[in-house]
Specification:
184 residues; four-stranded parallel beta sheet; single chain; 8 helices; 12% strand; 6 strands
């Protein structure tokens, strides 16, 4: 809260600099999606959570979209609304708040991460998510720091895994298709 004006101004600055699209470094900024997108003419994608409605439509009937987030209690209806996630989309949300290493670094602004320990935490949480929800059809990683563990999550669950990299790749493909080379 209180950061929206700074994000809007930064978006306008980036647009003036000539960027083709804007993304952010925290999935929880999705609550500012509408305001940031309205402030500029280039595409804005604040969170991988924007993929949830699409992922839901990719799945067969009766399948649920899993969301792995850094902190499940912090993922509020305001965030879901900002991502366009309607109440009729079946979700299973699990957070990393039960773990120590990943959240210690991210939430306490620590500088060093034990990558192996964080990997094992993601594997543990993903297994728990899949075990608790056998109707799971795919997983979306909310946190922009989770993509390094996407392959691990996919391997242990056998499910498609989407993250901010998936969204950036999709947007990049859409933007570069008709764009001439940009001068250096």
């Amino acid at each position: 809260d209180g950061l929206l004006d700074a994000f809007v101004e930064a978006s306008r600055f980036l647009e003036r600099e000539g960027v083709g699209a804007i993304t952010t470094n925290c999935g929880f900024l999705v609550k500012f999606q509408r305001q940031m997108a309205a402030a500029v003419r280039v595409p804005v994608f604040t969170s991988s959570l924007l993929l949830v409605p699409l992922v839901h439509r990719l799945l067969g009937p009766g399948r649920r979209v899993g969301i792995m987030t850094v902190n499940a209690p912090s993922l509020t209806p305001e965030h879901l609304d900002g991502a366009g996630i309607a109440a009729d989309i079946p979700l299973a949300v699990v957070g990393m708040e039960t773990e120590k290493e990943f959240t210690r670094v991210l939430l306490d602004d620590e500088l060093e991460l034990d990558v192996g320990a964080a990997r094992q935490e993601h594997i543990r949480v993903a297994r728990r998510l899949a075990a608790e929800h056998p109707d799971l059809g795919a997983i979306v990683l909310e946190c922009t720091n989770m993509p390094p563990y996407a392959a691990d999550v996919q391997r242990v669950t056998g499910l498609p895994v989407f993250d901010i990299g998936s969204l950036v790749t999709m947007a990049h493909g859409a933007l570069r298709a008709g764009a001439p080379p940009r001068p250096a």
